[in-house]
Amino acid sequence: MLQTGTFQKMIIAGLDGGGSQITCRIAKLTGEVLGEARSGGASLTHWAPEQVAENLAQALQAARHRAPGPQSQLAAICAGFAGAGDERRRRQYEGMLRQLAPEARIMVVTDAELALAGALDGEPGIVVISGTGSIALGRNARNQIARAGGNGPEQGDEGSGYWIGRQAVRRVIEAARDANSSDPFPASILAHWSMRDALELVNWLQENHRNGVRVAYAGLVPLVAQAAQAGHAEARAILVDAGQELARLVQNVAQAINMPAPRVAGWGGVLQHVAAVAVALQNALASVLPRARWTQPDGPPVAGALGLAQKLLSQTER
Known about the structure:
CATH superfamily of the largest domain: ATPase, nucleotide binding domain
Number of strands: 10
Largest sheet: 5 strands, mixed
Order of helices and strands: HEEEHEHEHEEEHHHHHHEHHEH
Distance between the termini: 7 Å
Low-confidence stretches: 1-5
Helix content: 40-55%
Number of helices: 13
CATH topology of the largest domain: Nucleotidyltransferase, domain 5
Shape: globular
């Protein structure tokens, strides 16, 4: 049992370990945020382990320095990473955090688990994420958990930025087969990548299919959105299809854990910045899961990390 004085001196940390950026928040045990900081990314695919460890240290130290008053004991850390579903990677991240805070209780989860906790403030429901990749994750009142998607580009990523970019590239290839085509949309894709024609694009994709092309595809999303806003029918169809694919992920999760009327929230760059996809998702949900309630997220993933850190500490002090 914690003494009152000890309780007041303790703090917790939540980290959202994004591929290109880490966000860290420091808070009192009550959840009151004391400081926040950001640093470089946490992807062990794109960064050396030593660099990831340094980025984590920078984010944690900067957030602690921004907390007002005397430095307190770090009691618990919860951190989420895209690669944490792999046990080896999870242990690797846990070891890095253990080096930074040997006295703290540590929890490492996936980025989707953070998003679920943050978007729904720990309550039952489903979060659907569409960024570079896509996934839906849900938890019901009986604490049963189910997921759909999140299998990477080789097995899916339906409705993600990567998926949208791939559909756009297919349109470029199809247009190249039509000698009479004057469609400006494929031309804008080629210009974005400084390619002369579809053949050069195909050759480049084949040569670099494992070297960051997933991110490159996702980088086409703004061009697709701009074309859709300008009235391009096929660009708009791509975005509508993306929303429908995301709705199917939500439907699969709801069926798996018997949630006929879930609260659903969206997260990720595509759903936050491409309104056509979010609207298509909501329209599709009204058809496939009519009792679902679409709501705005309660908070970001890093807020979910703090909530999970609080829960971790309360469980271990019982």
